[in-house]
Amino acid sequence: MPEGHSVRRLADAFVARFQGHRVAASSPQGRFADGAAIIDGLTLSQVDAHGKQMFLRFGNEAWLRVHLGMYGMWRFHGEGLAGFGRESVVLSDASAPESYPPAPVGAVRLRLDTGRNIADLSGPSACVLMTPPEHDAFLAGLGEDPLREDADPAKAYAKINASRMPIAALLMRQDIVAGIGNLYRAELLFRARLEPHKPGRDLTRADWDALWRDGGELLREGVRLGRIVCTRPEDRPKRKGPVRREDSFYVAHRAGLPCRICGTPVRSETMAGRMLFWCETCQVG
DNA sequence: ACAAAATGCCAAC
DNA sequence: TTGGCCTTTTGTT
């Protein structure tokens, strides 16, 4: 259940543990048996995260595109796996040799095994092989990812500023901005004090620049922490230790609760099939 | 224990 | 607009 920060962390895990290694590929569940046979025995040569999409290149010709959707997850087994949080990354230790390699848990679409590390993929909404031209075409349809060095926020603004759609809907469109999901959109708009229904064409360039910058900072913090924390320290209860989940958001999942800043009950409604949360007092820009 | 919701998206109606 | 994907998390008994 990731937004862009989780996918980036997963990509980092694959770079550290799998890139440059030859992998045995299989599909315990069976639904990816044909694809697994194609990449079986090839070397993982490149790893790329773009928004919520992760791409793994095997040999020279085969790109695997994985999108976790709402339910997908990678479960890792093997060595040296400290340092990860949870989100969609579940790690288990291989300290007991007699139980290694472990049996797949649940419906595992794809297992990648270097001999030292195993990655099990279950529940993805996409797990498909692409040729290099198909990969290029797919990338061309993806929006700007604030976590990427090559991102160009002006390209995203051009699309936003040309649209009558509400900014809260535009932020979710992965062909405009890649990596923002339902939690980040609600929280970013709150932090920017922007009214979610404001049409994209009414957003000033200054509005957008601030939104983009804040989005990049929040996503990078998400990569660092392994979870989404959007409240500023001064706006949440002071306590030691990790920020509690219920203290992590201004408006997301807080429908009916008092706004942290002004006390007005947080509003919610469905927009583009997802629940939108906002404060009608604070978000008037 | 069990039920419902969830950080997403697509195909089908 | 709805169902499906398939799992974990969260809340309610």
TrEMBL record:
Matching Gene3D superfamilies: 1.10.8.50, MutM-like, N-terminal (3.20.190.10)
Keyword Metal-binding part of the UniProt annotation: yes
EC number from the UniProt entry: 4.2.99.18
Key words of the record: DNA damage, DNA repair, DNA-binding, Glycosidase, Hydrolase, Lyase, Metal-binding, Multifunctional enzyme, Zinc, Zinc-finger
Recorded superkingdom: Bacteria
This protein's record includes keyword Zinc: yes
Occurrences of domain FPG-type (ranges): 250-284
Formamidopyrimidine-DNA glycosylase catalytic domain sequence ranges: 1-90
Enzyme class: lyase
Record field: catalytic activity: 2'-deoxyribonucleotide-(2'-deoxyribose 5'-phosphate)-2'-deoxyribonucleotide-DNA = a 3'-end 2'-deoxyribonucleotide-(2,3-dehydro-2,3-deoxyribose 5'-phosphate)-DNA + a 5'-end 5'-phospho-2'-deoxyribonucleoside-DNA + H(+)
Obligatory cofactor(s): Zn(2+)
Similarity-based family: Belongs to the FPG family.
Protein name, UniProt field: DNA-(apurinic or apyrimidinic site) lyase
